[in-house]
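Anyone opening a protein record will find just a pair of labelled lines. A complete record is shown below as an example:
=====
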Amino acid sequence: MTTDDQAMLHYLEREHRVPTERAAMQVGGSEFGIDGFHFDPERRNLYLFQFRSSASYQAFKPSIQTLVDSGMEAIFFSAGKVGAKDAFLRQLHSVLNENRSIIDQVCFRFVFKGDPEEAEKSQILAKYREELENKKYLVDQFFNGRDVGLIVEFRSATGRVGSFQAATHSSTFDVHLENPLEVQTSAGERMHLGLMRLADLNQMHSALGSKFFDHNIRYGLGESEAVNRAISKALRSIIIDKADDPSTFAFNHNGITLYAERMEQVAGGGWRITAPRLLNGAQTVTTLASFKAANEGASGFSKKSYEAIQVLCKVITKAEQKFVTRVTINNNRQNPVEPWNLHANDDIQLELQDKFKDELGIYYERQENAFDQLGAEDLEEYGIQETKAIQMLKLTQTFLLTDGNISRASSMRAVFEDDRAYENVFRRTRLRADARHILICYKVQFRLRKLISEIMERGENKYAFVSRARNLLWALLAQGLLNHEDIESIAEKHGRSLAVSNEYVELLTYLATARVRMLLSDLLEDRDYVEKEAVAFDEVLSQYGLKQEEAYRYSVSSAKALGPMQFTNRRGNGTYSLVVRRCPGARLDPVFESGATNLLNAMKAAVCLLDLELAGMREDIRVAYRANPAVLGIFPVAAYNGGPRNVAKLYRVLTRMKVTLDELSRPGVQLAGAAVTCPCVWKAEGTDVRPVAIPRYNNENRWYIEKYQSIVSLFESTAPDTALVPLSAGVSE
């Protein structure tokens, strides 16, 4: 028996006074999405429980999904059948069948150690809860149409109760659908196509409210949109001016699309729709509601004309979510539909909405125009404190740029149209990231124009290209923030609100002018850039963005070093062959050409080479490196081009410079009037540090050391035992 099962057992004993022996027979059923059940003959209630020994409502997500996908059918549809293989299910079926005539309510209770009110506000649980309530028709079928209520509630194990929600009916609507045509695919999806009254659509909207749009990709676009003005004009012409016949509306309208749990014909020739959701037609429905509210009381309003208006309607049933999404995509062409709109209702988007609400009290606008539809009371009810929202597109760019995918940040369509790219950007590890860290990177965009101006003031001609490299600047500043030694303090001060304080701007200005600008200065010294200027940026971004994992296939130096880490072969005696032989546990690709150009394989090989080179250094260097890897990283840098020989040379040079290993320090600021010509190392003297020029022992090595120190100055590690932090630190686990 699992921990949750034991807790469920004790809960039944304590809350419902069920004897231990009987309670043991009522615990189980996790494969059906429940953990236990109890029938109370006095209250005439059947209780179905999920119990979690967690304070987080997130723990319910997998089991509720199981309950919706297969559990409800296994419990209620199969209850009338004999011979369930599962002992727990047989026991539950027995209780259901024995008490079929006296059960008045089916109560789903989700019990955990957290706050039920927080669970009530969750967007992802609201979706699952609605899907559960939409399965009430299975309950109705089992009880032969008898009025049996269905209640869903979240409870604390301590007894605290959230607001329960009763689905006293299955959200069923009797509608007129004129001579519908039925179409069925080979996979079983069904569509009924016919003319439906606008009045019936308005009834659904009035009863369901915002739930009616839950499967839609966006809210109504507002009365100012051309399409909505045209709909309003057509309604006025028919209902108030009586200039057009009601039948003309269907001729001039593209139609609407619904998804429903069930669609069945009833006595009298009408149709009954269970749990309808609008896939296409939000503009028609919202414009109709606004028009009716504004004009229904007017003397010229013709109720007869209003009730006579019909529109072409498709009702989809028996379909999986992916099929419904595809239908939604292909039926939303009247107003321009962007690919990101089509992902608005993905589970990961709902979970991100919960994350920002729970951790920051900020609304995440996954559906276009949703935030504008919310009033102050709505925001308070949702637990939102901010008056601004995080936008889906800008959040996508934030994730891309902190991951280093600079080129993709300018190609939003490609990200949302490519399933692999989308799933990588919105991977589930984002949910475990610190929301404050995400927000401080997200807010950089609000001051990019000012920061570009600050950099250009240091050399308008020299840094003119920065105005065309906004995303590059955003990415570098984000990494400067995430790798700042005071990241926690910065996150706490500036990562809980979308407001941009003067202190935050000053921090960004410092990073832009003192850190990022120095990296850009190094770039300007690159011969290719000097010759090609901004074209070099495009070439680099194209190399990464278009070729992706193949980006390094043709990266070959004049010395025939290959790939991102510039490994050599030398007929089987180069650095790559060395690490393949010496590090069998890394399972490196033994073929030089493919192994050295594959980014992941090459990085593993580089780690192996670093380990081998450190192992071959003097003991005092190794000890110093373990104590201060960011600063002593100059020795692995020396080994990068020349191996142990250059490490020994650097050690001797430092000895001649009278700089000991424990005196080496991070770079500081050169004093005016006492500048030292670099490349140099920095020597600690008491509480001060000063630069010491490196004598010419190997010119290429000297400049490698200088470049390394410049990079570390910008991306300084927050972890004491690592030299560098991964590029995506802070916005993904």
In short: Confidence is low (pLDDT under 50) at residues 220-224, 717-730. The first strand starts at residue 36 and ends at 40. DSSP finds 33 helices and 18 strands in the chain.
